[in-house]
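Lay summary. Proteins are chains of building blocks that fold into shapes, and those shapes determine what they do. In this project we predict the shape from the chain. Here is one chain we studied, written as its sequence of building blocks.
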Amino acid sequence: MSIGIRGVAADWHGGQSSPLYALASTGTVLPNALTEARDCLALLNAGQYTSDDITRETPRLNALIAYLEQVPT
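And here is the predicted shape, written in a compact code that computers can read:
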């Protein structure tokens, strides 16, 4: 697993009980990690982030989602 993927998870996790927190801290992929990552992408595009944030974070979240889509849970 890429350190970059864990970094994206660290930047976007929803707290210590979230699947992305587990991914960021231990590398463990929990069943709801993909759902949480997709929710983060939807939140990014919901209008409360700047266009620079969207430009910077969309590829990072898409890479995280692509990774999670390939990992069996």
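What the prediction tells us: The chain has one domain: 3-70.
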